Amino acid sequence: MHKVSLTTQITIGMLVGAIAGMLFGKNVSGVTVVGDIFLRLIQMAVVLLIFGAVIEALGSLNPRDLGRLGAKTGLWFLMTTLLAALVGLGTGLLFKPGLSVHLDQLRKTPVHLNTPTNISQTILNFFPTNIFDALAKGNVIQVIIFAILFGLVLSQANKDGKFSQVLTLVKQTNQLTVKLVMLIMKAAPLGIAALIAGVVADNGSQVFLPLLTFLLIYGLATAVFLIALFCVISWVAKVPLIGLVHGFTQMIMVAFTTTSSAVALPVEMSDAQSKLGVSKPISQLVLPLGMALNSNGLAMYLSLVCVMLTQLYGIRVTPIALVQIVLLSVLSCLGTVVVPGGGLVALTIIVPTLGLPLSSIALFAGIDWFSGMFRTVTNVVGDTTTAIALAAGEDELDRAVYHSDKVSVKH
């Protein structure tokens, strides 16, 4: 018997919830408590998940890899993720997907963004005074800052294997936390059905129109980002643009159809070496690390969603709020990439942190699989272009594979 995937189950749950909301109206509004419980259960584990994943990713690295090459990798990851978040923000502000439909019930709900009064206060709030307080309050930015520092220290201290037990404990805790999140995600179809039923009961079927607009704008933003990235890497690595795009064709198809960075990783590593000329040591360091820590597509998705939600709720966004949306979009990616339903999990971090209603996440759950197509392609291309740039800088890039006669025979 063919097993129905979680994505299909969530889609069915969204349809059932939508139909129930339209048929029974206000009579089903009470079921939203089931969806609220589901969202709280995800929130319960997600801060611990990010905390452990960042420590494990950095703590597992060889200290030699954390030197010059590690710093360059981290810088490229940061630049591409920041660019992706800015593209998401820019397309959201330009096309205003949240204004395409007026959802009266949403606009009646008074919502205010949680934003500091100035830039210096914003920067100061990144740094924790007490890590346990940051964990208890779910302050994701402070937790990530601590986890990065702790992971770097663990990597250095464990070069002789003296702290291998600590690293093992972190890895095992992460494995259990991922299993916990996966267990909670099994309830996603029911939780999403309950939330959607409540939203449709309050607003009617018009709630789905902005989601189609969102997908179109997200697809456009993805195309803009990829074109920009290919042009930059062609110039930085001094390789022909046509040969570069050709080398990415297969991994883009795999990423788009599977919506999984983990599934695409073997193809990504093989093509990076055979079709894009990246040396094996560079690809083995950058690509697995990128899958765990770098998520251009998710950063773009989160910033676009946040802008759309501010428009749906009729919130006026200040420049400081825009900065906060971009930074949160970049930092919320850490540690959530490896989790099934990573986009949904990441939204449970950033939406309440900004002060937006948690129930609004349900709007995007039903189209998460379609969003995941664009997210995965952007993630895979972002990781591999970073590997190409680093290989070029380290003189470990075979540019001969970019010539048309060689490209055509390599599969």
UniProtKB/TrEMBL annotation:
It is found in: Cell membrane. It is a multi-pass membrane protein. It comes from Secundilactobacillus paracollinoides. The keyword Transmembrane applies. Keywords: Cell membrane, Membrane, Transmembrane, Transmembrane helix, Transport. The chain crosses the membrane at residues 7-25, 37-61, 73-95, 134-155, 176-201, 207-237, 244-265, 285-309, 321-339, 345-367. One of its GO terms (cellular component) is plasma membrane. One of its GO terms (molecular function) is symporter activity. The keyword Ribosomal protein does not apply. Pfam families: SDF. This is Sodium:dicarboxylate symporter.
